[in-house]
Design brief:
24% strand, 5 helices, alpha+beta, single chain, four-stranded antiparallel beta sheet
Amino acid sequence: AGNVVDLAQRRRPAWRVPVYALAASLLVLAASLWLRNTGGPVRVQDDGRLVATGELARALDVALASAPQPRARTAVGLSFRAQDGHVCRSFTRGALAGLACREGDAWAIAVLSHAAAQTGEVRQAGSALPPEVQAAIDARMQGDAFNATQERAARAAHWR
């Protein structure tokens, strides 16, 4: 039996590890270039911060978690005031899930992750968020999530 294991180990191609490492590097490079593209939902600023752009930024500006739009590409979940005083909102958009907090006139992305696969009917953005997004919410939230009235008031105040 020992000879079978040794033989199997010798037959394993030595090129696998370098090829897998190269593939992972190319994936990271492609993701980085995609994020830098101003046409995408997220942009990397010169200081390294991620900010929402385009349709994602518009959804964070106007969509209400208390009044979800059934065909919207971006679903906004929780809206709340963070411990630092900023308003934050969770969201899902396609394969992305994240948490954005209002900083000045921009939505700074506090955390961005791969969204869990949806099954069956459409789910609300605040439900079944990836653990890292939920942990970021738990770490920042001060008090309770906004109710419909608080959310409308925050939107009227430009999320300040």
